[in-house]
Task: structure prediction
Amino acid sequence: MINQFEISNYVKKQIQTYLSNKECDLATAMNDETMNADVAAILHDGFPTMVKKIYSLPKFQSFFWEKRELLQQHIANRLAAADKPRKGK
Result:
């Protein structure tokens, strides 16, 4: 599911601000259960409304915690991709 969505610049800034305020990096945040849930909530908030209704925040937070090892690099790559301008636009 997560492959289908890009991370917007707004969400990226929210995550960067959160990590900066916590004085940690993404890997550290994802390995802490509370911070992991916070990052998941930030990402979930950036999803389209239809997806948020189908895939609830608690369900997404649970998924995000259980699959944190797999998702950490994927999320880092998505955040880096948000920096790159889109082709054709």
